[in-house]
Amino acid sequence: MKLFYHPASTTSRTIMLFAAESGIALDMQVVDLFTGEHYQPPFVGLNPNRLVPLLEDGDFRLTECSAILKYLAEKVNSSLYPNDAQHRARVNERMDWVNTQLSRDLVYGVVYPQIFPAHKRPSAEVQDATLQWGKERAAGWLQVLNDHYLGSSTFVCGNMMTIADLLCAEYVFLGEIIGSDFAAYPNVKQWLGRMKALKSWAPTHQVIEGYAASLDKSKFVVV
Question: Sheet harboring 2-5: ordered strands across?
Answer without folding.
Answer: 27-30, 2-5, 54-57, 60-63
